[in-house]
Specification:
heterodimer; A: ABC transporter involved in vitamin B12 uptake, BtuC; B: alpha/beta; Rossmann fold; 2 domains; six-stranded mixed beta sheet; globular
Chain lengths: 347, 250
């Protein structure tokens, strides 16, 4: 007997319950991964000591410092940045109607990379400590990349094709500028630029984590407010317009919000690939493309993936923390391949 | 809603797609828009739906159509989204949908699926459906919005004969019962003859004739419009039956 035997509404409600359950399972796995991430690190601390420290019962100031100042911010940053990249990837794939869209496609990451490299190069001249100047510059230039792409969209109509073309042009522009900076940089600055471009959670702090979480907390409700209109975009621009959606306005609005999200995420941790691409794919397979479900699910699975990657970065070579950007790419590529090959079965 | 279109012209750059068209349609009436490919039917329909820049005036009940009052179904039905058929129909209620979906919206979507006869497809993903099934789901989407006018661009192009008859009869009944103003672009001249109260024939952006099917579907109007030789007879039900014979230019 089919699901619709009890009526379309009952079947839909049952499907929604299944979707919520899958997201909750993802959330539970995230909790496990987060806990394991906090419990793991080069210092090889006993898990019981970590738990005592987290509960405020720790007696060793050194151990407390490791847990509270290093592990907790990193694990939390992995969750927050993963969620942010997941949501921004989901929105980009929706508004550009392209399953390959991510912050890379539109040159936003390249803009951030250039900004960070510029700050590293002229860091001594800036009135800000380097710790903040680099993320600020990365955020500003992510915004510049968005402004360029958005301006083209405003002038010529925000069609997915045009935005992607403008984004690719932006990507090449900032990559060329980044190469120029690398060419001009001293060996020390060049090393710092390359390390930033790897992407790393080691620069995390509770303050930075709070900023990214704050941006996500503001952006997600704004995007959810447009959830049905974003869902309608999946039927094509013409049909969305026929349903009363102001397609170009919605696309540009979503684009601005997503730019802020991506800018905030990459500013503090560098360019972390694949999360923004893979998390929405997993969410889509699990809960479909009703954006009311897909956006939260993308956040959950993005957070889970980056949290797992953070854990893996510490386990691959005990005593060493690999730059997480390398881990997400190394694990992400085969994982993505597996996803693509098994999509039919998963559905 | 009464449609009054005056001197409607649609341009794409220097190309004129619709030229100086005057057209009226009344509630409870089905008007079939006919014409060869590229004759400007879809452009005119998009202009009537307020989705296409144009010159001239288009008035619905002497003014602009209120939001949601026009149910426009574009030609493209290539939706591949990971959405169920029910969700696609629910989108027809866009103007009232919130994060929590209200009972009225759910009931309207369910009723529209029931009316079109696609309730059994509700839980299937739209991308998995056949072209014809998808077309029926999208018709249900348009009806779910409870519009006062229907603008349908080739609504039955992917349907088999039985489903064509079912959908066209259903649309005609809905038009009568709800007092809708229905304009449908059709390629099947015989379906238009049976289904429509009036037909409008377009040739290279201009209206070549508007009137009762028996008056317009004649060799002298059809042959220059479609560039074919045709024979026209009266069917047993009194509707004209058009038989294409051969292309004129061959």
């Amino acid at each position: 007997m089919s699901d619709t035997a009890a009526g379309p509404v009952a079947a839909w409600r049952a499907a929604n319950l299944r979707r919520a359950t899958l997201s909750l399972i993802g959330g539970a796995l995230l909790l496990v991964s987060f806990s394991a991430d906090v419990a793991t690190g080069p210092a090889m601390l006993p898990i019981s000591a970590v738990v005592r420290s987290l509960a405020g019962l720790g007696a060793d100031p050194m151990l407390d410092a490791i847990v509270h100042n290093l592990r907790l911010p990193i694990a939390l940053m992995a969750v927050v940045v993963g969620a942010t990249l997941g949501v921004s990837g989901a929105i980009m794939q929706t508004v550009l109607n392209n399953p390959l869209a991510s912050s890379y496609t539109l040159g936003i990451s390249a803009g951030a990379g250039f900004g960070a490299a510029l700050a590293i190069l002229v860091g001594g001249e800036l009135p800000l400590p380097e710790n903040w100047a680099i993320p600020l510059a990365a955020f500003v230039f992510a915004g510049v990349a968005c402004a360029i792409v958005g301006s083209v969209g405003r002038m010529r109509g925000a069609t997915p094709e045009l935005l992607i073309l403008a984004g690719i042009a932006c990507l090449f522009l900032f990559q060329a500028l980044l190469s120029l900076l690398q060419f001009l940089a001293s060996p020390e600055a060049l090393q710092q630029i390359v390390f930033w471009l790897f992407g790393s959670l080691l620069r995390a702090s509770m303050g930075k984590t709070t900023i990214v979480a704050g941006v996500l907390a503001v952006a997600l409700p704004l995007l959810l407010k447009d959830a049905w209109r974003l869902t309608a975009l999946k039927l094509g621009d013409e049909r969305a317009r026929a349903l009363g959606v102001h397609v170009n306005g919605l696309r540009l609005r979503a684009f601005v919000v997503v730019s802020l999200l991506t800018g905030a995420a990459v500013a503090f941790v560098g360019t972390i690939g694949f999360i923004g691409l893979v998390a929405p794919h997993i969410a889509r397979m699990m809960v479909g493309e009703d954006q009311r479900h897909m956006l939260p699910a993308s956040a959950v699975f993005g957070a889970l993936l980056l949290s797992l990657a953070s854990l893996a970065s510490k386990l691959i070579m005990p005593g060493t923390v690999f730059p997480i950007g390398i881990i997400t790419a190394l694990i992400g590529v085969p994982f993505f391949g597996w996803l693509v090959l098994t999509t039919g079965r998963v559905q | 809603m009464i449609l009054q279109a005056r001197n409607v012209t649609v341009r794409y750059g220097s190309r004129i797609a619709v030229s100086d068209v005057n057209l009226e349609a009344r509630p409870g009436e089905v008007l079939a828009l006919l014409g060869a490919n590229g004759s400007g039917k879809s452009s005119l329909m998009r202009a009537l739906a307020a989705l296409q820049a144009h010159s001239g005036t288009i008035a619905w009940d002497s003014g602009r159509a209120s939001p949601g009052s026009i149910g426009y179904m574009p030609q493209d039905n290539g939706a591949r989204a990971a959405l169920t058929a029910f969700e696609v129909v629910l989108l027809g209620r866009m103007r009232t949908l919130g994060l929590r979906v209200g009972a009225a919206d759910l009931a309207a979507a369910e009723a529209a699926m029931e009316e079109i006869g696609v309730s059994d497809l509700a839980a299937r993903r739209i991308g998995e459906l056949s072209g014809g099934q998808r077309q029926m789901v999208l018709i249900a989407q348009v009806l779910a919005g409870n519009p006062r006018a229907l603008l349908l661009d080739e609504p039955t192009s992917a349907l088999d004969i039985a489903h064509q008859l079912h959908v066209l009869d259903l649309l005609r009944t809905a038009t009568r019962q709800r007092g809708l103003t229905t304009i449908a672009i059709l390629h099947d001249l015989n379906a238009a003859a049976r289904f429509a109260d009036r037909v409008a024939l377009m040739t290279t952006g201009r209206l070549a004739g508007v009137g009762a099917p028996a008056d317009i579907l004649q060799p002298m109007t059809l042959e220059p419009t479609f560039d074919v030789h045709v024979a026209v007879d009266l069917g047993s039900d009194g509707h004209p039956v058009v038989l294409p014979l051969r292309a004129r230019s061959l």
